[in-house]
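JOB MANIFEST
job_type = single_chain_structure
chain_count = 1
residues = 376
[input]
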Amino acid sequence: MGPQPTHEQNPQSGSVGRVQIFGIPIRFHFTFVLLVVFLLVLGFGGEQSGAAIAIYVLALFGSVLLHELGHALVSRRFGIKTTEIVLYPIGGVSRPERKPTPTEELWISLAGPVVNLVIAGLLLAYLYFTHGLVAPAQMLKPTDNNLMERIAAGNLILALFNLLPAFPMDGGRVLRALLARHRGEDEATRIAAATGQSLAFLIGLYGLLSAQFLLVFIAFFVYIGAAQEGAAAVSHSLTSGYPVRAAMVTEFHTLTHGQTLRDAANLLLATTQKDFPVALGSQVLGLLDRNRLFRAMATASQDTLVASMMDRNFLRVSPAASLSETLPLLVDAGGCALVMEDDRLVGLLSTDNISEFLLLRKFGISVQSVEPSAAG
């Protein structure tokens, strides 16, 4: 799998653990950990030793990791820093600090499969000139003797699977990069995402009919990834050309730094607002969102001041900023941003009102900006 654009370094939700290689944080999605356990359990009881099983699983893990590092190193070659790599059951996702151009995306996407092809080629060449290669049919039954052949075969499968022209695989990103040379980027993404969903449906159907439920599992991940890419393309298209002020909430309540968690809870119940700026006079000090409020209520007294529980490193955006470019920032920031003009709070931007904005745009309703109105 290939790069997913982002603009923040917040960890991907659902990821656990952390190591760092070449200055890049490597995290593991909890489903990846479950897959490793599944492979280890599946391997026991056959003709291979426990050591061979462990080596095989670790080799596949290392191959996926090297695949993603291939993306990251080529990204660095283009001056794009990779903020995080998250490993999933069907591969990994590298998160660049900015979205690559179509040409950059083409080479970055190809880098991962090339790494797997090189690994497979080196292993097969070594085996050919030293011990000779076993027949492909013999690799269907795992043993200690065909361990290296199976690792090579695993890398070939990783390369070919990732080259399928379907999001979120590398082949889908290659397809988008090629289409984007002649079509708009959003249209190219929608075509590649639709291709990915269709391919995932066929893979899942085959997996059900042949009782190969691992294929169904893979098809599910591919379908979800393609659907997310398609939805992101639609959102980008509908918000393109609009500033943040066109979608921001302009009538909102604020909390003062001297108010308590009890006051915040009462305001949460009395209004439809979920996120509250915390201010000292006209100065904005932080942001208290609903999740942070609930966590605080579970661990602190209701008389605790909101100033001690608020997020001081909140996302702030300009009302004139591009709405389409702000969307990835908003998602990574937890779903809410404060719209600031100089140091003056003029609005809130959340995923909820973005969704309403997108619905209005889909219905062809004209959207106009209004002047802000803050309530205490």
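[summary]
The CA atoms of residues 180 and 205 lie 30 Å apart.
The first helix runs from residue 30 to 43.
exit_status = 0
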